[in-house]
Amino acid sequence: MKQEIQKEEKSYTISWQQFRANYAALDILTNKGVPQQVHLSLLADGTWSTVVVVWITYYYKVGNSKAWSNEISFKTDCPAVTTHTFAVMGDMGTVIPAGYLVAKQIKEDHQVTPFSAVVHVGDISYAGTGSKDEIAEIWDIWGTQTSIVLSGIRTRSTLAQLDSVSNSLPALCQISSSIGHYRPHARIRASILR
């Protein structure tokens, strides 16, 4: 990770805080079908103490041993900024043209008043079949329609009831600025929280 202060960059460390014996455990699902979670913690001085950060650019990649996203970055807020605007979307499925119209409207609104982040609240693509198999074509349609919104905007996705019932957990694989490069069967969930 790199910290930017007045156009100077200083190196900091980001660590994996994990509760599994090895990293390979992050590629599997628990017995309840819930993906393993990866937690990132900032270590500014080598301790777990509270850190006050003025402005940091975080650089990260999402993936597993089979595929990695491109490097993605976002900046933390300047202390003077107190207003945040969020776009929330969910339960879009891949109905044409409704899903595209929702994504197009969010993009147009973002151009007028930029969002701090987009939150996808679940029932993601309806590509699940209730078994271990999924319908790749539906993931492709969903990826195409949401890339209008998700490219270049901070994104947070969550699962809803239909995602867990129909085995749509892979929807939370690679959330990146180029959403079309997701891997439907890469079972990893990424969360960047401040």
Automatic annotation (TrEMBL):
The cross-references to InterPro entries, in alphabetical order and at most eight, read: Metallo-depent_PP-like, Purple_acid_Pase-like_N
Q: Which GO molecular function entries does the Swiss-Prot or TrEMBL record give? A: acid phosphatase activity; metal ion binding
Query: Mind listing the UniProt keywords for this protein, alphabetically?
Result: Signal
Note the superkingdom of the native organism: Eukaryota
Q: What is this protein called?
A: Uncharacterized protein
The taxonomic lineage of its organism, from the top, reads: Eukaryota, Metazoa, Spiralia, Gnathifera, Rotifera
